[in-house]
DNA sequence: TTTACTGCAAACCGTTTGCAGTTCC
DNA sequence: GGAACTGCAAACGGTTTGCAGTAAA
């Protein structure tokens, strides 16, 4: 996702583009991934010192509602945001240090058994792989 | 999971078995699934009126740490607990009303691509299917 | 008898909200 | 000019914690 991509998509949605919202959007396009709201706030403040926490939360919530930003709720602690919504990918989570790594989806798409679906309309699948990151595996795993 | 199963497993771990812990364990074995801590507290109170919220939280956290209870963090709002840890199953989540339904895992086990694993030790996989439950699909879906 | 567990209440943390003032279009 | 956005600060909801008292082994 590039800034241009995101900002032009947002303009196309007639979203009022303020300095604050631009700052948040710009933070999201770096190589930062899986930031917390607090981290987004801090980074946005380095561009626009007076931006408030409430505005950051408002903006993040709007981006999520628009489908321009994903939420990752796989670990304890504050919610994390995933700007990489354009390509399908899954998450690899370290159960010890809570690191999250994106992985491309190459596996066959899992399916719900017909007889278990029971009228549910399935529109998406999330896959979370759990385990230990290299560092934690070296220290504690086998 | 039957009461006997759970309680005997807990006794085997030399876990001090108090009336409060027994009440929580008994709540978890009903046909209730995906309860919140608050719901567990309420149900436990009908068995043991003086049980406190703190004790419920303590007990739930201990059971999770022991691996006797799962956490389901797929929706907003309070954390939900999943007592059905003995059999592998996945979750079907309604994005509108946040209903969660268990589904048996019949699909082929997803795999992380070798070249994306990068030293990560993968010990488990969670699959969350998202969509609309029958009621919400009838009302809002197509 | 000793150690671990319980209840209470206050603290905590991440997030949301009400409102007066400001800014974008 | 008017609707929409912002900042502040207080409120909120879920969860955790400190501590004095109680109960299991």
Summary?
The structure is a homodimer of 142-residue chains. Chain A contains six helices and six strands; from the N terminus they run ααβααββββαβα.
User: What is the general shape of chain A?
Assistant: globular
CATH class of the largest domain in chain A: Mainly Alpha
Number of domains of chain A: 2
Distance between the termini of chain A: 37 Å
- Oligomeric state: homodimer
Largest interface: A-B, 37 and 37 residues
Order of helices and strands of chain A: HHEHHEEEEHEH
* Beta strands of chain A, count: 6
If you had to describe this structure to a student in words, what would you say it looks like?
The structure is a homodimer of 142-residue chains. Chain A is an alpha+beta fold and 142 residues long. Chain A is 39% helix and 22% strand. The first copy, chain A, has six helices and six strands; from the N terminus they run ααβααββββαβα. In chain A, the strands form two sheets. Chain A has a three-stranded antiparallel sheet with strand order 1-3-2. Chain A has a three-stranded mixed sheet with strand order 5-4-6. In chain A, helix 2 (19-28) crosses helix 3 (37-47) and helix 3 crosses helix 4. The model of chain A has no long low-confidence stretch (mean pLDDT 89). The first copy, chain A, binds a DNA duplex (25 and 25 nucleotides) through helix 2 and helix 4.
């Amino acid at each position: 996702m590039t800034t241009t991509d995101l900002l032009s998509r947002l303009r196309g949605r007639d979203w009022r583009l303020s300095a604050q919202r631009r700052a948040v959007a710009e933070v999201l396009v770096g190589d930062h991934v899986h930031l917390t709201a607090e981290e987004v706030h801090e980074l946005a403040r380095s561009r626009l010192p007076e931006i408030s926490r409430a505005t950051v939360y408002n903006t993040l919530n709007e981006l999520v509602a628009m489908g321009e930003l994903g939420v990752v709720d796989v670990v304890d602690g504050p919610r994390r945001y995933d700007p990489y919504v354009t390509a399908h990918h899954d998450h690899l989570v370290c159960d010890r240090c809570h690191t999250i790594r994106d992985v491309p989806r190459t596996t066959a798409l899992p399916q719900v058994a017909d007889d278990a679906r029971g009228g549910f309309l399935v529109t998406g699948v999330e896959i979370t792989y759990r385990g230990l990151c290299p560092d934690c595996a070296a220290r504690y795993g086998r």
